[in-house]
Amino acid sequence: MNVTLAVYAVFFVILWAVFIRPASKRNKEMRRDQATASVGAEVMLTSGIFGRVASVDEDSAKIGVEIAPGVVIHVTRVAIANVTPEKSDEADDAAAPTDEAVETD
């Protein structure tokens, strides 16, 4: 009886470590991203639509997402699946390719 109980306990620990814990971490990170989405951040909605946050209404938890120039859709915060923080101008300048020649053999 004790061996069977130990086997079940080991099985549960493995199940928790492989499935439950990583899923909980992903859910916690997604909830944090949804709560911190701000104007200018690039988002991917759960429907697969990509856009940029145009407005945030804290009272009703609605977010306006611009999916094309001049086209804004309103969704709830829970519709956000992924958030890319807004870029600063300095980051854009640093990511721009330079005109320097690269020597190759």
Automatic annotation (TrEMBL):
InterPro entries per the UniProt record, alphabetical: Preprotein_translocase_YajC
Subcellular location: Cell membrane
Keyword Disulfide bond carried by entry: no
Chain ranges passing through the membrane: 6-24
GO biological process: protein transport
Lineage: Bacteria, Bacillati, Actinomycetota, Actinomycetes, Propionibacteriales
UniProt main location, coarse: membrane
Membrane protein topology class: Single-pass membrane protein
SMART domains: YajC
Positions of region (Disordered): 84-105
Name under which the protein is recorded: Preprotein translocase subunit YajC
Similarity remark: Belongs to the YajC family.
Key words, A-Z: Cell membrane, Membrane, Protein transport, Translocation, Transmembrane, Transmembrane helix, Transport
GO cellular component: a single term: plasma membrane
Entry keyword annotation includes S-adenosyl-L-methionine: no
Taxonomic source organism: Nocardioides baekrokdamisoli
